[in-house]
Amino acid sequence: YAFVEMVADYIRRGRITLDPSVNKDRVTYHDPCNQGRSAGFIEEPRYVLRQSVMDYVDLNPCGRNNWCCGGGGGALTMSEYRDRRLDVAKVKAEQIKASGAKVVATSCHNCIDQLNELQRHYKLGVKVVNTCELTADAIVLKRPVDLHDGEGYLRDTSKWNWEMAQAMAYSERLGDLGNEHRQVIEYVRKYYDANKDWPLPARIAKDLGSKRCDLFRREPQVLFKIAGLPNPGQKLTWDVKKLHECER
After folding, report:
1. What pLDDT, in 10s, does the model give residues 116-173?
2. pLDDT of residue 219
């Protein structure tokens, strides 16, 4: 399962969106022997590149008839074959030059190394890249949705989860949420779901005890943010004396 096959599938199914305008230079593709002649990946890389760049041209010949880059069969790793390797690959260099491309893409690291050496040796003036680099540059990233309003409250309470609550607790410098914290959070969430209203501090103290209010610095706003409730739109305070009276 080659990269080009996977990405071609992702593009067709709409899993990724590409903006080819970011790759404006003319691009051509070198078919690696293993992927082209052996594995039969001929159309997939071309489909991916045509979706990823503005100006694509094929080499001539191409596909199964494409010239080998000259670095296969282990020749690239043997220094004693360097001169011969570069000499037999002159036809590949001429092929690239004739295409008028500024960028040569391929999907084989062995080919990339050989093509880079060819472009230096024959002064081709081209950039050699992996096909995936052009595709990655062209991917359109969707703008992340900001779940919180300007004051830190969730816009949609259904998006709330405990991981989010813990992250908010850290941002409010409350540390780790313990069992007692969780009991208070669950209480206010259930109350809000049932009444479509925020529980007043006195109600929380009466039902859970005034000491639970201390867990959230006696600030209802902090509790409501962590519990994923919407912005109450008013300044609430927890009067300690009144909370103790309510508790009685």
Report:
1. 999 999 999 999 999 999 999 999 876 555 556 666 677 666 778 888 888 888 878 8
2. 73
Distance between CA atoms of 74 and 48, rounded to whole angstroms? 28
pTM of the model: 0.57
What is each CA distance from 196 to 13, 14, 50, 188, 207, in whole angstroms? 41, 39, 53, 11, 18
Mean pLDDT value across residues 49-59: 97
- Measured between alpha carbons, how far is 151 from 172 in angstroms, rounded to an integer? 12
Q: Are 212 and 171 in contact (CB under 8 A)?
A: no
**Contact call for residues 181 and 169 (beta carbons, < 8 A):** yes
- Domain residue spans in the chain? 3-138, 157-247
- Both tokens of 227, joined, read 């519990």
Residues 66 and 42 sit within 8 Å (Cβ to Cβ): no
Class of domain 3-138: alpha beta
Residue 104 CA to residue 157 CA, distance in Å, equals 50
Neighbouring residues of 23: CB distance < 8 A, sequence distance ≥ 6: 52, 53, 54, 103, 134, 137, 138
pLDDT tens track for 183-219: 989 998 999 989 988 888 778 878 887 777 677 765 7
